[in-house]
Design brief:
With 149 residues, this protein is α/β, with parallel strands linked by helices. It contains six helices and five strands; from the N terminus they run βαβαβαβαβαα. Strands 2-1-3-5-4 form a five-stranded parallel β-sheet, with helices on both faces.
Length: 149
């Protein structure tokens, strides 16, 4: 498995913690930046990671900013991305089980390191349930196709 990671300056420290955690689990990480705490624009980094996931160059993506909201909005503009902003383990599990989220967004100023790593673990271990949820995820993807016309 390989995971695309990215952040802006507000999520940089959390992204680095997540990278170490993933690599410690033997997961390959593709880092799309940023590489420090100097102010940058989150859309640039959210889009880069999302494009890697959408193209299949990464299996999933984990992105961070101050709240997790802005960078997720950018990622969700990329066709094929279902990025969930999560701040608890239940939502992490449901974003995968019911929504087949292929990207996770975390807010460094919202979620502490310990909880963030638990969220990552739950999110990565949870499989999509399919079934009745498949129809709903397909409807989400159809909305996206309608926007492309």
């Amino acid at each position: 498995m390989n995971i695309a990671v990215a952040s802006d300056h507000g999520g940089y420290s959390l992204k680095e913690e997540i990278k170490r955690h993933l690599e410690g689990m033997g997961i390959s990480v593709i880092d799309f930046g940023t590489d420090g705490e100097a102010s940058v624009d989150y859309p640039d980094f959210g889009e880069a990671a999302a494009k890697a996931v959408a193209s299949g160059n990464a299996d999933k993506g984990i992105i961070c900013c101050g709240t997790g909201i802005g960078i997720s909005l950018a990622a969700n503009k990329v066709a094929g991305i279902r990025c969930a902003v999560v701040s608890d383990t239940y939502s992490a599990r449901m974003s995968r089980a019911h929504n087949n989220a292929n990207m996770l967004s975390l807010g460094e100023r919202v979620v502490g390191k310990g909880l963030a790593l638990e969220i990552v673990d739950v999110w990565l271990k949870t499989e999509f349930e399919g079934g009745r949820h498949e129809r709903r995820v397909e409807k989400i993807m159809q909305i996206e196709k309608g926007l492309e016309k």
